[in-house]
Write a structure and sequence with these properties.
Helices cover about 40% and strands about 15% of the residues. The protein is α/β, with parallel strands linked by helices.
Length: about 400
């Protein structure tokens, strides 16, 4: 990329831990913002394991680190000084904690009306569950996601990723960027709020609409689409493929491709509604037809015929896939402490820009002295702060 990254010059204070908050701030860091992590002295985040873990390195790349005890009067004063010059602050404390520390939105916006203050919580800033501790799996269950995930009759199932954490982080980043755009017009910041519960309900999308609009309580459909057929995971000679042959045109092409033109005359499969009503019988017949060839053969044949079909990769197989490699979705960064690390890049492209990991996650408090010198503290003062446990 030529020139500065899109968010270069934007100053962000990161008071987050665990996953949802760091995901939000990582977007801003990857796009060029100057992100300063505010960590407790020692830099412990027991939700992510060791600092050298891939998880920690992935979440906290492209950031600087300031070790600061916000429970101390002087530590709070230092944060307030930083907030006066910041564009964005992101936090994911339980809602009452920031008020108790005196660093809530009202406190900081009074000092800096241009500040965009973003909060991620488990269940919202107010309401009967606001003060409950919240983590991804709890939100998945409360938010309905587990009720539509997994095989029918086998009980609720969590998704294979921390979906409410990640989606809450992305929603937060979108909210921050929206508030920054509004600030261009008004000169004032906003309090941006989201939660794991809000993210879960948002991610339900059409499953929520099935209840709200159609009055249908969605259930589990396992690896198959909840309202159309055939669309899902099917067996081949040597494994499985994902296949989407729903709709009259695609189903007709697929029937001819697998040499089952009789399906087109079968009343059970005559329409989308009929195919879904008889989906178990249709799945059995599709599995039998696909068992004649390998997964790789069906992927090639179906796509050549315009029928969506793809392999089911393990993570290592996915990173070896030629299309994934072509998109260059990973980037190597150098860590002084841990050597060379390969990290996933953001899943967004600009035509003439590349958003990528540029540096590894910082050591705990790596930039403390640098930041304090920038605020006017001298070497003796910094040492005194360290001796008193402020930094």
């Amino acid at each position: 990329m030529t020139g500065a990254l899109p968010l270069a010059g934007l100053k962000v204070l990161d008071l987050t831990r665990a996953r949802a908050g760091p995901v939000a701030v990582r977007q801003l860091a990857d796009w060029g913002a100057d992100v300063l992590m505010i960590e407790v002295p020692g830099g412990a985040d027991d939700m992510l394991g060791s600092r050298e873990s891939g998880d920690f390195q992935n979440l906290h790349r492209n950031k600087r680190s300031l070790a600061l005890n916000l429970k101390s009067k002087v530590g709070r004063e230092i944060l307030l000084k930083l907030a006066c010059d910041a564009d964005v602050l992101v936090e994911n404390y339980r809602p009452d904690v920031k008020q108790r520390l005196g660093i809530g939105y009202d406190d900081l916006s009074a000092l800096n009306p241009r500040l965009v203050y973003a909060s991620i919580s488990g269940f919202g800033q107010t309401g009967p569950y606001a003060l409950r501790p919240g983590v991804d799996q709890i939100a998945q269950g409360l938010g309905g996601l587990m009720s539509v995930t997994g095989q029918p009759g086998e009980g609720p199932m969590r998704t294979g990723i921390a979906v409410t954490d990640v989606s809450a982080g992305l929603l937060c980043a979108i909210g921050v960027l929206t508030a920054l755009y509004e600030r261009v017009q008004t000169g004032k910041g906003r309090w941006v709020r989201t939660s794991l519960l809000q993210a879960a309900v948002t991610m339900l999308d059409f499953q929520a609409a099935r209840w709200l609009v159609d009055g249908v309580v969605p259930g589990q459909e396992g690896n198959h689409h909840p309202s159309v057929a055939p669309m899902g995971l099917f067996e081949t000679r040597d494994g499985h493929v994902n296949l989407a042959a729903a709709g009259q045109d695609l189903f007709g092409k697929f029937a001819l491709l697998v040499q089952r033109p009789d399906w087109l005359q079968d009343a059970r499969f005559a329409s989308s509604a009929q195919r879904f009503a008889h989906r178990e019988e249709l799945r059995a017949e599709v599995n039998a037809a696909l068992s004649q060839r390998t997964s790789g053969e069906w992927v090639e044949l179906c796509n050549a015929a315009g029928i969506p079909c793809g392999p089911v990769h393990a993570i290592n197989e996915m990173f070896a896939d030629p299309q994934v490699r072509h998109l260059q979705l990973t980037q190597a960064v150098r860590s002084e402490a841990y050597g060379e690390l390969e990290l996933v890049k953001p899943g967004i492209d600009f035509a003439d820009a590349e958003f990528a990991p540029r540096r590894a996650a910082p050591a705990a408090g790596e930039h403390t002295d640098e930041v304090l010198r920038g605020l006017g503290y001298e070497a003796g003062q910094i040492e005194a702060l360290r001796e008193n446990g402020v930094i």
